Amino acid sequence: MSRLRPGRWLIAVPMLVLALATIYPLLFTANVAMKTRRDYILDRFALTDRLRWDNIETAWSSVGMSRYVVNSLIVVSSSVLLLLLLGSMAGFALSQVRFRGSRALFLGCLAGLFVPFQVIMVPLARIMADTALIDTYPGLVLVYVAQFLPFTVFLMTSYYRSIPPEIIDAARIDGNSLYGVYRRIMLPLGTPALLSVGILDALFCWNDVLMSLVMMPSADQRTLMVGVTSLRGQYSADVPTFASGVLIAALPVLLVYLFLQRQIADGVAAGSTKG
Question: What keywords tag this UniProt record (predicted)?
Fold first, then answer.
């Protein structure tokens, strides 16, 4: 049997510690969610003796987590569709269409990556209030699109630059317009990148708290992550119910990471592609 080289131990041990540090909070939260308030007060670290779904049912129905999930699904799905449409079109134009100022426009999109939301939060909130978009689905969708579009354009441009320009030239010779080239050639070829970027954008929007908290102040319009943070104050004495809400919010993200790991990794790697 070949022994593990010391160099590999230097990588394996920290990664194992990191994995345990990531998994333990989720297991602890699931264990607390299955306890009664009395059991949690007596011993918060003890394993539950049986599975109890009462706390999860309470968080889902009585607390309003079901409404928060619906709000998040509407906002995230709409935002991702717009981001993919605009990002793929902009990526095609910046990578394959020759026009004056394309490089400056691409650099401007890159600059948008370095503008945090906290910098534009106050003026953006005033603009949204003046246009009656506060506390509406379209308002939050527009904010998400504006915030994450530079990232989407950057990755799609990097991916489309790897496609040989001869394919575009051949399609134009066959009589396709620019829109025809985009619809018939670039969209099918860009499906892997669109899937990867779409997953990343969905995770960004799903996990957001600050933008949703500013744009959706009313309780009925809260997204899931904002709803979970509000549980901390309302159910500070009922920790198992709060843990159930956290578990509901974490489960979709966990499933995405478990089943779509390769697509997520491809999306992260797409930005390093050179044209």
Answer: Cell membrane, Membrane, Transmembrane, Transmembrane helix, Transport
For residue 176, which phi and psi values (nearest 5 degrees)?
Answer: -80, 140
Decide if 225 contacts 209 (C-beta within 8 A).
yes
**Over the range 176-211, which residues count as b (16 or more CB within 10 Å of their CB) and which as e?**
beeeebbeebbbebbeebbbbbbbbbbbbbbebeeb
How far is the C-alpha of 33 from the C-alpha of 272, rounded, in Å? 41
Pick the CATH number of 64-234 from 3.40.190.10, 1.10.3720.10, 1.10.760.10, 3.30.450.40: 1.10.3720.10
Residues 91-131: tens digit of each pLDDT? 999 988 888 888 888 888 888 888 888 888 999 989 999 99
**Token pair of 80, please?**
């991702």
**Radius of gyration (C-alpha) of the chain in whole angstroms:** 23
Q: What is the per-residue pLDDT across 226-266, written as a single tens digit (0 to 9) for each?
A: 888 877 766 666 788 888 888 888 888 888 878 777 766 66
